[in-house]
Amino acid sequence: MGIKYLWDTNTAIYYLQQQFPLSAEKYIDDLLKKESPIISAITEIELLCWKTATEKDTEIINGFINDSLVIELEQLIKLKTAEIRKAHRIKLPDAIIAATALVYGLTLVSRNTEDFKNIPDLNIINPWEQ
Fold it and tell me: What pTM value is reported for the model?
């Protein structure tokens, strides 16, 4: 079994808005050929809160969420989130996303690598650098 990837919220938004540079777009397309997106519950919530311009935009977001594997906030993720927040200055949504990746052994796909750089054992890939 190959590497599995957890999409950060920014990755999902750039994908939905088709704002990737060509190299990142190819990288994401290659990921999507292998598996559906995996997102955390917090990414699902952030996407649902995202202000959309049209009903079509809302349908696109809902379609993306429905096509994704959403990892819910189970107890191990909550405990890991608390551990990360106690040890590092990181926003709660980012701590939840990092904890989800760590608990499930997933590689995080994010443009915001600086937000996660001090979290030990977290594997992270920036699609803009691929």
Answer: 0.93
